[in-house]
Structures are given as C-alpha cells and as structure tokens.
Specification:
It is found in: Cytoplasm. By secondary structure, this protein is of the alpha/beta class. The chain contains 16 helices and 11 strands.
Length: 405
C-alpha cells in the first residue's frame, strides 16, 4: 500500500467535523485524517506541521477565515489540495475562493456520498501528480547522467552541418549550453605512434585518448573566462574542442606542451577564433585544415613557428635570425614557411604579437609603452602603427572601445 495522503478537517462546529470524519471510508481512498481544527489559525499551523495533502475547510471560521487560510496555504504549501464547505447564502463568497484555485466545493449540509466522490477525485489527482513527479525526476536524473554524451552527439552533428538553425537553438537550450556559436573551435590531432613506439592494443589507444582529453579538460577548466566547453571525437578520430567565453588561442600551445610533458606525446593543436561571420562547420573545417597542414610541415618550419610563439616578445626575432638559428637561408625559409603554413613568416609573427597585445589591452592595466615592450616592438609608435594596420584602430582606442562595451 502506498503511503496515505494526509487530510485535515477545519470547521468551527464539532458536529460537522465529526460527521465528516465518521462518514467517509478513508482507507478505501488511501487517505488519513491527521488532525482537526476549529479555527483558521489552528488549521494553518497544523497543515504546515503535518505537510498535509488535502484540506477540507469551512469558509466561515473565527480568528482566521477560510479565504485568508487558503491564501496563506497557496504561499506556504502550494501543493495542498483544498475542498471548501459552504452554505447557499455564502455562494458568492465561495466564488472568491474558487479564484484561489480550490479543487472543489460542497454545499451544506454535507452529503457523504458527494464528499466521497470529491475526495476520490482529489486522491486520483494526487496520485497522477505524484507519478508525474517521479517520472520527471527519473528523466531529469537520466538527462544529468547522459548530458555529456548527448552534448557530444549533438555537437558532432552540428560540425557536420546536419542540423537546422531551429534544431540548433532548441538543442542548445535543452542541453543547457550557451545559445550561440562557440568563441573558439579547436582540433587536437594525435599520432598513432608515440616516440616511435606503436600502441599494443585498442585499449592502449583509448586510454591515451582519455588521457589527452583529461589534459584538455584540466587546462580549459583553469581558463578563468571560459564559460563552457565541450570536447568530442570527430569521424576521423581527432578531438574537437568547442569553447564559449574565452578567446585565448594560446590554450593550444599549453595543451601541446602538457601532452609532451606528462604523456610523452607530440600532439598537433589548432584553435580557430569565431570572428562572427562564419558558421560552426566552417570554423571546424578551418581548424582541421590548419592542423592537417601542420602535420605535413617539415621540422624546421614547425620549429620556426614554435620560435615565433615562444619568443614573439623579443624585438630581435626576425626571419634572418630564425633562419640562421635553423641553418637555412632566409630566402628558403621564407618560401617554404609560406608554402607549408599558408602564411608568411612576418604575417604569422605580426598575428601572434597582435593577439597577445589584445590580451594585454583588455586583461591588464599596462601602459601602451609596456605592452609594446612585452609584444616585441622597439617603440610605442611602431607598435601602434602595426596594431592599427591589423585591427583597424589604434591600441588605445581598441582598449577604450572594449571598456565601453
């Protein structure tokens, strides 16, 4: 037997309370009378104490009338069902009670058969509501349990362009994700061999993939401005990372360095910024193209790029300097760098310096002179000229625009 629904009978006349209690087969309806009250104040106190499910209440009671009692219950115990008892001369009064969402009413003198029928209906309503709550609770727990998997499946369809704009909006809301395009899309490509040692089994392969994903989670989790993120594997087995809130593309370098340090594994990473004029499949293709291009890079082009990313703050970092470090001619490095990376050496160096300058402009209170020094420029004037050429406005105006929203 299910736990019985709790009932309170509130009427200032003892004979009416006793008549109601004795005339109903409560067990048959799965109900239990847990108390009686002769005034509204006592009824409210008892209802809250017992957390009752049904209140049978006379509208005309001393101290606190039935309407006031019902109003208080609607605030403090909104799930309680209310059945009012009223006389013919109080029917206009009863109409006001109905506006307070009472469940039913009975005219005096109380007919036991009619009251039995009303109570049966209210009991069925409680059973249905209880069942629905249990179903919703189970569904909610299942959703919480599987939300990561559901997010991954949806995002996989999203990057492939297999969902409509309406479906995208609905799924983002349902999966409690930011309802807009991600700010960054990243691709992590990992080799089938680590340091020349072939993986022994599929189990080893999956374990390594999980390890890389753990690195990604930890590093993005440490990014203070990251609002949300999702990572999953695409059809080719590469790891795709979608990030909302952060535009810090240096996360790719940190992921590469952490995998090298902790997993003894060289991974290739590319993060593409959403500039507001593309869709997700295009961002995904751009990031994938970049990482695949990087996979075909010769060692010294990759080393040249690493030198840019690590030593961009050095004003002595030039094409000639890097070529000399790598033991090749500057003409050859310039040609092969553009051919393999899709960007000139100077173009990539300027891009990295500008990206870092933007981070310092919006994330610090450093002066223009200090930012120029930290991003590898000999003078504030040269920094301002270069920044304006790339961004379209001087750095001080960029900072002001950002601060003003």
């Amino acid at each position: 037997m299910n736990q019985k629904w709790k009932v309170i009978i509130a009427d200032d006349e003892f004979i009416i309370r006793e008549g109601i209690r004795s005339s109903i087969d409560w067990d048959r309806l799965n109900l239990q009378v847990v108390g009686e009250a002769e005034d509204g104040e006592e009824a409210l106190e008892l209802a809250l104490k017992e957390q009752v499910n049904i209140l049978i209440v006379d509208l005309s009671m001393p101290i606190m009338d039935g309407l006031t009692l019902i109003s208080e219950l609607r605030v403090q115990l909104p799930g309680c069902k209310v059945i009012i008892i009223t006389g013919h001369d109080e029917f206009a009064y009863a109409k006001r009670a109905i506006k307070l969402s009472v469940d039913d009413y009975i005219l005096k003198p109380v007919n036991p058969g009619q009251l039995m029928e009303v109570l049966a209906g209210v009991s069925r309503k409680l059973e249905v509501e209880s069942t629905n709550e249990k179903i919703l609770d189970i569904a909610s727990k299942q959703l919480d349990k599987n939300v990561s998997l559901l997010r991954e499946r949806f995002c996989l369809e999203w990057i492939e362009g297999d969902v409509s704009e309406d479906e995208i909006a609905g799924q983002l809301a349902f999966l409690q994700m930011p309802e807009r395009l991600p700010d960054m899309v990243g691709i992590v490509r990992w080799p089938e061999q680590s340091k020349g040692k072939a993986f022994m089994s599929e189990k080893d392969r999956q374990l390594l993939l999980f390890a890389i994903e753990n690195v990604i989670e930890e590093l993005i989790g440490e990014t203070s401005d990251a609002e949300d993120y999702v990572h999953f594997r695409d059809q080719t087995g590469m790891i795709v990372v979608l990030v909302w809130g952060s535009r810090d593309t240096t996360i790719g370098t940190r992921i590469s360095e952490a995998c090298e340090k902790y997993l003894d594994l060289a991974v290739l990473v590319s993060f593409q910024l959403n500039e507001g004029n593309v869709n997700l499949p295009e961002l995904y293709i751009a990031a994938k193209t970049m990482v695949n291009r990087e996979a075909r890079m010769s060692d010294f082009v990759r080393k040249a790029r690493e030198m840019i990313e690590q030593r961009y703050s050095d004003p002595e970092l030039t094409l000639e300097f890097v070529a000399d470090e790598l033991g090749v001619s500057s003409v050859y490095l310039s040609r092969i760098f553009k051919q393999e990376s899709g960007q000139s050496f100077i173009g990539m160096l300027t891009h990295v310096r500008t990206t870092m300058a933007i981070r310092l402009l919006v994330g610090t209170k450093l002066t223009m002179h200090e930012i120029a020094e930290k991003t590898g420029y000999d003078s504030q004037h040269y920094f301002s000229t270069s920044f304006k050429k790339v961004v379209g406005m001087p750095p001080n105006l960029y900072r002001k625009s950002f601060l003003e929203g």
